[in-house]
Every structure is written in C-alpha cells, then in structure tokens.
Amino acid sequence: MASMDAALSHTVELTGLRYGWQPGTPLLDIELLQVARGERLFIYGPSGSGKSTLLSLLGGLISPQQGQIRILGQAMTELGASARDRFRADHLGFVFQQFNLIPYLDPVDNITLALSFSRHRRRQLGGESPRQAAQRLLKALELDPDQVAGQPARQLSIGQQQRVAVARALIGKPELIIADEPTSSLDADSQARFLTLLFDQCRSQNSTLVFVSHDLRLAEQFDRTLSLEQINRASTSRPPKAVAC
Predict the structure, then answer these.
(1) What is the DSSP string of 175-240?
(2) Which of 10, 21, 95, 109 is geometrically suited to a Cys-Cys bond with 179, CB 3.0 to 4.6 A?
(3) Cβ atoms 39, 208 nearer than 8 A
C-alpha cells in the first residue's frame, strides 16, 4: 500500500472514471477530478444524477468499470475488497444523509464505534481515550455530552443526531471526510451554523471535505463548487426526461 506522503498535493485524484449500474449505460463518465489537501469541495446535482454513486466510488464501496481512483496516493482499484475496507476505516470518515447511527447506542458509543475498526485512528488520538475524544468533539459541535449521556440515538433530535454523526466521522482525524446531503432536513439558519461547525473541525485536523447536495444555496460557503452534470460526460448523452403535460 502506498505511504501517506505528507507532500502529496491531492487527497483525491480520479481519472477516466466510468461506471454504470447497467451494462452499456454509464451513469458516470468523468475524465478528471482532483481535490486538494485540506480543500472543502461542494458538488451539486439533481436527484438521480449520480452524486451518491460518486461518493461510493470515492470511498471504495464499489469499483469503477474503467478508470482509476487515488485516495491519498493509493490506487483504490489495486486493492481487494478487504484491503479497501481497512483503508476506508483508517483514512475516511462518512456523514450519511440519514446519519446511520446505531439506534440503541448512546452518542459516545456511536462515535467511538468508528475506532473499533481502525487501529490507525485509535493511535491518532494521542493521549486521549476514545471516550474523551468523543466528548471533546461533541462539545466542539455544540452538543453537551452530559446532557445526552445514556440516551439511545433514536431518542435524539435530528440536529443532535447530525452532530453525533459528524463526530463519528471526525474521530481519529481521518484525512478525507465524505458528506452526503447531511443538511437536507435542516432550515437555512441551522444549515449555516452546522457548516461553520463542520468546517472548523475539518480545518483543525486538516481534513479534506467532499460534500454533495442538490441545494446550491450552500455552495458559497465552500472553497470550490462543481456541478456534477458539467464534469460528467454521461449526463450529456442521456435522453431528456419526459415532461408531463
């Protein structure tokens, strides 16, 4: 496996990627996508445009039919399934649209669960215990760990669940944070405050952020914005959707 070179300029480098759920019908056809170290990238597109599929490819959950994906210099297409799982656990943090918390675990246990799969991320804690790191992140994200201690995740509000999901993604300082529509259930004021907290934490640990959404109002807060349809050659080859009369 490639070493994590501190001088590496890109966290993500994708070249000649082609992927489709059905043979001969590409959903994604992207010649080049690069994301710099520490960058906050916003990718937008309508529902069904392939945003979540792109994130699954970046995370090694699925493999492209053509092309190459490099994360931190490591060619994901050269790794077997188990090696991709280990790499993902060590170096990537995910924030899902539905948060995907374990409903019967409390916030701290949900957060520290991410460390159970990665010795590398446990070492990144330095002198902190997993519990201390989880509580520190909750406080930084403006959620009092004492207030929610012992509460199963299913009893938390949407905003509380969101902060727990972000803390779980951040714990152990993964180099790449991938966020899939995590603000879709929040109002505009809550979205802005949440993004500020997320950016602060990514900046403090020098994590790269790839954030996808259909909500273009969020774009101005990021370092760079990309339209998936503009970089995806497959979108221009699809027949237009029928419009009901």
Answers:
(1) SEEEEESTTTTS-HHHHHHHHHHHHHHHHHTT-EEEEEES-GGGGGGSSEEEEHHHH-HHHHHSPP
(2) 95
(3) yes
